[in-house]
Amino acid sequence: MIGRLNHVAIAVPDMASGVKIYAGALGAKVTPPQALPEHGVTVVFVELPNTKIELLEPLGENSPIAAYLERNPSGGIHHLCYEVDDILAARDQLKAQGARVLGDGQPKIGAHGKPVLFLHPKDFCGTLTELEQV
Q1: The pTM of the whole model exceeds 0.90
Q2: From 54, 57, 130, 132, active-site residue
């Protein structure tokens, strides 16, 4: 069902500092910041030859990243994102196996303009998991 690893998301308390590390110290190509108010985050993508790193910064008072950063003030790995061919079929198969889909269970449009869903970390070895339809 799952395809390749699309990205590893890292929550950062300060986007400029995160970009400085990846673009400056590591010499990676970093995309311009993109505000995603419907997800409560601003994102940039660090483009690597085999995948991407997504840096997440809180956007707005109700950002889920703000709560994460309260528990982890220095930031850290927030979630893994895997590609799927059919997000609704993947959702239905996972739900039939007892996995919990977060939110209302309906895909939302993610940073790449494609449908995404999040799966409960307790069902996936303690890791928040995102599925993105490709």
Answers
A1: yes
A2: 130
